[in-house]
TrEMBL record:
It comes from Candidatus Sungbacteria bacterium RIFCSPHIGHO2_01_FULL_50_25. A motif ('HIGH' region) lies at residues 18-26. Its main location: cytoplasm. This is Tryptophan--tRNA ligase. It is found in: Cytoplasm.
Length: 333
């Protein structure tokens, strides 16, 4: 196995699809961890545009969203001096290894993926949608990733990645490292504000179901104000009897750093209204600096960052792919 870098740091890779409605679920479930782990890990932050097209995309919107998400990653605190920020489609090794991994993957394994089962209802069955997890496995394995911070919906895909790494290694000799998911229990499944039984989702038809990272303070306050609550009036954590308030409390806790018990104590003699008011303040306080940094970034500066990221990512990905192809018996160039 080729070490991805000379540094001894563990390698973190994760990805996010380019989309306009980047929300607090994406932030708390994934990106916030990438930013925090820059201190201890070598971070590869990928914009998964090839994954995005498994649901048809308008070209100009895809283009705009790719740059927009890159800007957001920077605004959230990813530091291009420390981390590699890159666009998936700019590294051909991903699709190439993805193809090789497809030839090791029984269709049945792909068909039983929860995300495939859910999405195929909405979009019709596209081959790309079915094969999405093998491409994701390639993303992860190319960088010898140790750890992949994601929300709960991606765990199954990382399990498949491990299976494929083992399979390839068993057949062709030790090549890939088996990665582990990193899932923060409290924020791995941020629920929709209009329905605590559904995951907060970019594709929801109701914008009041999510808080976008770029929502104006007034919009945030309004959305929190109309977020559904449970019967009763106590701010108490109980996932079964109070799923809506519990979701809001987890969000409060993640943005403020205050524990759930402390939140209960803080609002013990207060109702939902005051809690929601405070939650909106906490959120606006956390998102405003991100939004300010976002506005200050130019398209040119983002493109420069992505170009640098492409170069750094390609070096590692190409090296791993070359080794894998050699082991599998392909002619060297
Ligand atoms: P995507 O929007 O599918 O590109 O997701 C990007 C990252 O955000 C992935 O790691 C997802 O698991 C995570 N994520 C998406 N929605 C949520 C949510 N509602 N709660 C927690 N994490 C989420
Ligand atoms: N499939 C992920 C999502 O929709 C995005 C993604 C693509 C990813 N490649 C990845 C996440 C590799 C982690 C590792 O959220």
């Amino acid at each position: 196995m080729i070490p991805a870098e000379k540094s001894k740091k563990q390698i973190l890779l994760s990805g996010v699809q380019p989309s306009g409605n980047f929300h607090i679920g994406n932030y708390l479930g994934a990106i916030k961890q990438w930013v925090e782990m820059q201190k201890t890990h070598r971070v590869f932050a990928m914009i998964a545009d090839l994954h995005a097209i498994t649901i048809p995309q308008e070209p100009e919107i895809l283009y705009k969203n790719t740059l927009g998400v890159a800007k957001l990653l920077l605004a959230c605190g990813l530091d291009p001096k420390k981390s590699v920020i890159f666009v998936q489609s700019q590294i051909p090794a991903h699709t190439e290894l993805g193809w090789i991994l497809n030839t090791l993957t029984p269709i049945g394994e792909l068909e039983r993926m929860t995300q495939f089962k859910e999405k195929k209802e909405k979009a019709g069955v596209l081959a790309g949608l079915l094969n999405y997890p093998t491409l994701m496995a390639a993303d992860i394995l190319l960088y010898n990733s140790d750890i992949v911070p994601v929300g709960e919906d991606q765990i199954q895909h990382i399990e498949l990645t491990r299976t494929l790494a083992r399979k390839f290694n068993a057949r062709f000799g030790e090549t890939f490292k088996e990665p582990k998911e990193y899932v923060l229990k409290e924020t791995s499944r941020v629920m929709a504000l209009d329905d605590p039984t559904k995951k907060m989702s970019k594709s929801s038809a109701n914008p009041a179901s999510y808080i976008a990272l770029l929502d104006e303070p007034e919009t945030i306050r309004k959305k929190i104000q109309i977020a559904v609550t449970d019967s009763g009036k106590e701010v108490a954590y109980d996932e079964i009897t109070k799923p809506a308030i519990s979701n809001l409390m987890r969000i409060y806790s993640a943005f403020s750093g205050i524990g759930l018990k402390e939140i209960e104590a803080k609002f013990s003699d207060k109702g939902y209204g005051e809690f929601k008011h405070d939650l909106a303040d906490v959120m606006v306080g956390a998102l405003t600096p991100i939004q300010k940094r976002y506005s200050a970034l130019t398209e040119a500066s983002v493109k420069t960052v992505l170009k640098k990221g492409q170069k750094a990512a390609a070096k590692i990905a190409d090296r791993t792919l070359t080794e894998a192809k050699k082991k599998a018996g392909f002619l060297a160039t």
